[in-house]
Amino acid sequence: MTRTLLLFRDSFPLRRTFRISRGSKVAAQVVVVQLREGALVGRGECVPYARYGETVEGVIAALENIRRQIETGLHRIALQSILPAGAARNALDCALWDLEAKQAGRPVWQLAGLPAPVPLTTAFTLAIDAPEAMAAAAREAVGRPLLKIKLHGEGDLDRVLAVRAAVPRARLIVDANEGWTPATVAELGPTLAAAGVELIEQPLPAGQDESLRGVSCPIPLGADESFHLASDMGRLRGIYQVLNLKLDKTGGLTEALKVKAAASAAGFGIMVGCMVGSSLSMAPAMLVAQGAAFVDLDGPLLLAEDRQPGLRYDGATVYPPTSDLWG
Question: Which terminus of the chain, N or C, has fewer Cβ atoms within 10 Å?
């Protein structure tokens, strides 16, 4: 049967400006892959990330370059050696999974040999702002049991303490997005631990991880920008205790499942995160996030309006996708 590749770019305005240590954004820019075979359509979404040299135009060009292979029956296993890990491969890999599920009349979790997915509690992200503004945002999110606080350096302790005072019962994790130094980790670690912070994510710029070795911190450290694939684990062992797995980094669900298994076997805690995208980006990640120590799939909650149909969010609880969305 003839397969047709369709590529779309979508833009989703955010509820409010989203600031991290590297800058700010007001909309989520995504690429959607559709694979049509007869009456069936498989879909996948990716979020090109400038930090990794990705653009919407670059992702579309990469997929156009292999259009012939895709339309003549490229399988997702062969895909792993045709495109490098990253956003383009993620969207295509997830579309291939979705199409395969529709052709088989079975959900992706069954095809992958996984247990049936269950609802999960996701973190909710507070963008960088003045301490009082972040405290106000935390109070707005008072019903969400796990908050992720974006940080970047000067004034970070005041930000965390303001949030803690605003929501004394919430679980907290912090994400410096490469904005700290080893001295910051050593200095803030004990006070953040006393405030109940459970994880410090990506404190240093990727590539400077070795300078964390031997730095005393009572809070587990998580690698995000420093961790993409299983091949990264060797150099991160003894520095980080938790690895943040994202499908836009692994290049799709196929590789993400392998990376999760390898990281778990190596003794790392697993965090499953996301870029800021729609429910179509989050849906495949729900399968990887099952059993993870930390789940951060709040991208649709940051949008002014999600795509429809979308994932069901009930407060901080996110439910597995229905077949009309993905999988």
Answer: N
Kind plus residue range of the DSSP H or E element containing 252 = none
Measured over the CA atoms of residue 83, residue 85, residue 86 and residue 91, the dihedral's sign is positive
Cβ pair 79, 96 in contact under 8 A: yes
Q: Please tell me the pTM assigned to this model.
A: 0.95
- Indicate the residue among 85, 107, 129 that finishes a domain: 107
User: Phi then psi for 108, rounded to 5 degrees?
Assistant: -60, -40
Closest of 45, 52, 46 to residue 22, by C-alpha? 52
- The predicted-structure confidence for 68-124, as pLDDT tens digits, reads as follows 999 999 999 999 999 999 999 999 999 999 999 999 999 999 999 999 999 999 999
Contact 248, 87 (CB under 8 A): yes
CA distance 142 to 149: 14
3-class SS of residue 228: coil
Say which amino acid occupies 174. Answer: V
- The two beta strands, 317-318 and 120-121, are antiparallel
Q: Which residues contact 151 (CB under 8 A, 6 or more apart)?
A: 21, 128, 159, 160, 174, 175, 176, 177, 179, 180
CATH of the domain at 264: 3.20.20.120
Query: Is the bond into 309 cis (omega within 30 degrees of 0)?
Result: yes
| Residues 158, 10 share a domain | no
pLDDT tens digits along 45-64: 999 999 999 999 999 999 99
Chain-wide mean pLDDT for the chain? Answer: 96
Q: Which domain holds residue 218?
A: 120-318
- Residue 327 maps to a domain: no
Q: Pick the closest to residue 76 from 35, 116, 22 (CA basis).
A: 35
Q: Does the residue 326 lie in any domain?
A: no
Q: Annotated catalytic sites, by residue?
A: 150, 246
Question: 186 and 280: one domain?
Answer: yes
Task: Give the alpha-carbon dihedral of 89, 97, 103, 45, to 10 degrees.
Answer: -60
Question: What would the pLDDT profile of 136-155 be if each residue is shown by its tens digit?
Answer: 999 999 889 999 999 998 99
